[in-house]
Amino acid sequence: MLSFQDFRQSIENIKEGEKYLVGASGQIIFTLFNFYDSLANLAMYSDAKEYDKKQILDRVEANQEKMEKWANYSPINYRHKYYLVKAEYYRVSGKNWEAIEYYDNAIKLAKENEYVHEEALAKELAAKFYLQLDKEKVSQVYLVDAYYCYLKWGALAKLEDLIKRYPQLLASVIQQEVNSQSYGDETAIAKQVTTSLSNLNTEQTINTSSTTVSGSLDLAAVIQASVALSGEIELSQLFATLMQVVRENAGASKCALILKENETGNFIVAAVHSSFGISSTSTTFPSTLLESSEDVPVSLLNYVKRHGQICVIEDISSEAKFATDKYITRFSPKSVLCLPIINQGKKLGVIYLETILL
Question: What are phi and psi of 5, to 5 degrees?
């Protein structure tokens, strides 16, 4: 309820949860209760009566005494929480400069320690703080950052909530979503490609049929794409980044990106990159239906699309189920890697890599 700014319901939930808190002593839920209890009460501060305001501050101060101890014992897990509550405490106390310092400290530590959901929350609260100060441009920076943190976390309902509450501040984000509708959410694609590539390694073994083959493709360079891809939004930027890494992989001769269209549900060969030697390369954006494409092995891609599994094959011509594919019989590729792109359970597309050298 706190995430969706239903603070009164949050307080009611806190009161109900307190009945069972004694049983949570020593567990992580106890520390989280402390954290969200403080934030919910501080969120209600401006609308509270004077007597209640004092009670709120007393309660938060008591919570912070405990949180400070936890932060000293385990700074990675709790220091950013302590700082964020401190920022909110300074906000309601009218100490703006102190609040600014602690918002930024909380964001920095949450990011460093990979608490993406709490990094998002800290940025959102900082954005609200600056908006209250009529610093709209500064607020927008924090809010857009918060949006992409929530996106990284996979909190789709929260993204909708932010857009409804702050359509003007998130206008650039909304426009990007409109621009990406033809092939779905490229941010989600980039995110899932990052995850999938990061999960691969050169020792991986994958069953393709009755034969077990090793993932002996030179994937080290491809995995480097995981960092770069996470920041790409536009399809052309995403693919260009991937291609740059593929070109560094001496054995790679072709890469194709297949995406599902939102409107029709059809899978389209969105982009194809081929390299001919060291310096000669070609990138095209055919946008042709997968079923009629002559740029990729359709039967293999349909197999990966249908089963949703990574497929690494050392010698594709020896695989009976793909040996009669028109592309394979015509171009005789040697080893291939097919990587499904799946986000939130939805099939978004497939990445196809083809190599000549093993």
Answer: 60, 25
Give the contacts of 356 (CB within 8 A, at least 6 positions apart): 251, 253, 333, 334
Secondary structure letter of residue 356 according to DSSP: S
Alpha helices in 3-135 (DSSP H): 7-18, 28-43, 50-73, 75-92, 96-112, 116-132
Domain ranges of the chain: 7-179, 181-355
Rounded Cα distance, 80 and 161, in Å: 24
H-run or E-run covering 276: strand 267-276
pTM above threshold 0.90: no
Within this chain, domains 7-179 and 181-355 share the same CATH topology: no
* DSSP letters spanning 175-243: HHHHHTGGG--HHHHHHHHHHHHHH--TT-EEE-SSSEEE--S--HHHHTHHHHHTT--SHHHHHHHHH
Summarize pLDDT for 183-218 with one digit per residue, the tens: 455 445 444 444 444 444 333 333 343 333 333 333
- Record: fold of 7-179: 1.25.40
**CA 47 – CA 56 distance, rounded (Å):** 11
CATH fold of 181-355: Beta-Lactamase (3.30.450)
- Low-confidence stretches of the chain (pLDDT < 70) are 1-29, 174-252, 275-283, 343-345, 356-358
Q: What is the DSSP letter of 314?
A: S
Phi, psi of 154 (to 5 degrees): 90, 20
Residues of 110-125 as b/e, b for ≥16 C-beta within 10 angstroms?
Answer: bbebebbbbbbbbbbb
Q: How far apart are CA 268 and CA 258, in angstroms?
A: 5
Q: Give the residue among 234, 236, 198, 240 at the shortest CA–CA distance from 219.
A: 198
Tokens 């909190």 map to which residue?
155
Is the CB of residue 287 less than 8 Å from the CB of residue 260?
Answer: no
Report the C-alpha gap between 247 and 178 in whole angstroms.
Answer: 31
For residue 138, the tally of other CB atoms under 10 A from its CB is 16
Work out the percent of the chain whose per-residue pLDDT is above 70: 66
Contact between 91 and 129 under an 8 Å Cβ cutoff? The reply is yes
